[in-house]
Amino acid sequence: MIYLDNAATSLHRPECVGRAVCGALSSLGNPGRGAHDAALEASRTIYTARQRIAKLLGAETPSSIAFASNATEALNTAIFGLFGPGDGIITTAAEHNSVLRPLYLLSLRGAEVSYVHAGKDGMPDYSSIPSMITARTKAIVLSHASNVTGNISDLSAISEICRMNGLLLIADGAQAAGCIRTDVQKSGVDVYCFTGHKGLMGPQGTGGLYVRPGIKIRPLKSGGSGIHSFDRMHPDIMPEALEAGTLNCHGIAGLSAAAEYIMSEGIDKIEAHEARLCRMFLDLARDIPDIKIYGRFGDEERAPIVSLNIGDLDSGYVCGILSEKYEVAVRGGAHCAPLLHKSLGTVKQGAVRFSFGYFNTEEDVLTAAAALRDISAGR
Amino acid sequence: MRKKENYIIITFVSTTSAMAAEEYLRTRSVPGRMIPLPGSIAAGCGLAWRIALREYDDTARNMIQKLEGVEEIHTLTM
User: Fold this and answer.
1) Whole-model pTM?
2) For the structural domain made of A15-265, what CATH number should be given?
3) Chain B interface, mutation test: which of A28, A37, A53, A63, most B Cβ atoms within 10 Å?
4) Taking all residues of chain A, what is their mean pLDDT, rounded to a whole number?
5) Is the N or the C terminus of chain B less surrounded, counting Cβ atoms within 10 Å?
């Protein structure tokens, strides 16, 4: 099978990830609960993971990284923990449901949510943001990279708008972390939510959020923390404030190994490899008759994603043929980004998404493009 | 019966602070180790750094003063 569904989850992971998870399963106790060797080793494992993720994202300190089970949980934590009735939030039409649905729920509770329009190439019109800011506006919430088009948001430019207007910038890094160089401090992000199992190549069930020091988020969950046991309220000290209950220490051990692997290989090398495969696929796909490709493809940096359709063929049908006849694994249908599909005009058809990872090869690209050409010719 | 000794006990605001302290002190060969928080101390996370008073010299004191996330410092006979 040629696996080109890395935007859904990574499949081919560095060997060190599996070794770390297996080792953790049989050696680690509960992090932060006790001082025997197994518990301390678990705490050390979590701390090392915080250090590595902090370094990878350009965070000030390991304690600014709180772990969560995925980007959705991280985004829910940030959105519900920072905003409430009466607050205004600006987001974009390019967002995943992990941003949209918490915001829909928040709007039912009395928040004012407004949406930046996205063009036919899926790129939000960021120039409209200043005119959307009202006295109630507290934040801009948007994706660093689109899970459908691979378009990237210029976080530095948007954070400048935030800075000038006293707003927080919350970024969904689900498709960017591990794929493109990210520096939360330089780009002025206040909260950066990530998942561990996509570009970071860690296990599913891992993820988290960077929280700029000084920002207080009300926890989504309360409970065991391993600290201040006699306090009635969950401690508000980062990162434990956002980590009630036992962490997925075994998974985080794998994520830590993956982060170390990414740093030893070099994020620039990984980004360049994936971008090269993406461009190669794009050049081959563009030559196929009646192909429709979605996204902005200029000189801009991009996430390694290409979504397309062949004529009016249903995207799910195309994915089925790619899987059954050519053993090429991609994702079709809607991609949990309903407003973006409206902008792209793909609500009924969906889109066939090819997403590349560090372990894909040029041969994978050639095979996938040839299969696509075959399907187009056989209509 | 084990002979009792005087110790300096350092408590931390969080497990993360405790782990950061442990790494900092270990890499600088400061004596001591992480222990469960003694019941007589009602502060800090569940972990504390214990260093024998006889080893708590100027070098160790200076290193410990540089730690972030220290909540309290106690002297205990254990």
Assistant:
1) 0.95
2) 3.40.640.10
3) A63
4) 96
5) N
